[in-house]
Amino acid sequence: MEQVRQLHDKYFEQADKVLSSIPIAHTFQARTGVPKVYGGLGLASLVLSLVFFNIGAPLLVNLTGFGYAAYASFNAIESPGKEDDIQWLTYWVVFGFCNVAEYFTGLLTYWIPFYYVFKLGFLVWLMMPATRGAERLYLSTIKPVVAHVKTMASAQPAPTVQPAPHVQPAPQPKKSD
Predict the structure, then answer these.
(1) Tens of pLDDT along 130-174?
(2) Cβ neighbours for 58, distance < 8 A, ≥ 6 positions apart
């Protein structure tokens, strides 16, 4: 039981440290008296439950993928280092590619059970600084594909435009006075 308590304390402290950088978490704790970690867990549980039961799942998953990333991107822009700028710029490139791919495969994804649960997990994996999923996916898949397309485009000579054969203009109708 002592090991469970130590794990709880360890993860509670880590989550508290992360949530300390979010102003609304402080406001929540001050107004309710509930620790911000428990508020965050409650919100995460609510969102996960709604996504699991497909109640507003597309909206919630896209808000998660866009909302937190936008917040983190604003913070990255204001920070002095460039490492977080690169992480979030890479995330947006991967996020854009995934959204375009999802648009064209919408009919197929409709039939995948728990698609939005998987998508939420995928987006969280892309966002997390510990996994650097967006960077991994970019370097392993997107960058080679874009480089290949660039070389293919530059290797092909520009098509020459052949002049159109002379076409006689259509006769104009005569005006009657």
Answers:
(1) 899 999 999 999 999 999 998 888 876 666 666 666 656 666 777
(2) 116
**What is the rounded distance in angstroms from the CA atom of residue 162 to the CA atom of residue 160?**
6
Q: How far apart are CA 22 and CA 38, in angstroms?
A: 14
Amino acid identity at 60? L
Q: Are 50 and 60 in contact (CB under 8 A)?
A: yes
The length of the chain is 177
Please give the angle made by the CA atoms of 127, 88 and 140, to the nearest 5 degrees.
70
Give the global pTM: 0.73
Output helix, strand, coil percentages for the chain, rounded to the nearest 5: 75, 0, 25
Burial class (CB in 10 A: 0-12, 13-18, 19+), 126: buried
- Tens-place pLDDT, residues 86-133: 999 999 999 999 999 999 998 888 898 999 999 999 999 999 988 999
Neighbours of 29 (CB within 10 A): 18
Crossing angle of the two packed helices 115-127 and 36-52, in degrees rounded to 10: 140
Cβ neighbours of 142 (radius 10 Å): 17
- Two tokens, residue 174: 């005569």
Q: Are 29 and 39 in contact (CB under 8 A)?
A: yes
Mean pLDDT on 21-28: 90
